[in-house]
Amino acid sequence: MALALGDYVRAVADALGVPPEGTTHEVTDTVTAYVALSCRAPEHPDRDLMLVWTERRGWELSVETGPAERPIVLARRGGDVVPGPEAVARFVAESVAGGRSERAALPSPVDRVDRADLVERLERSARTR
Question: Which Pfam families does this UniProt record tie to the protein (predicted)?
Answer without folding.
Answer: DUF6292
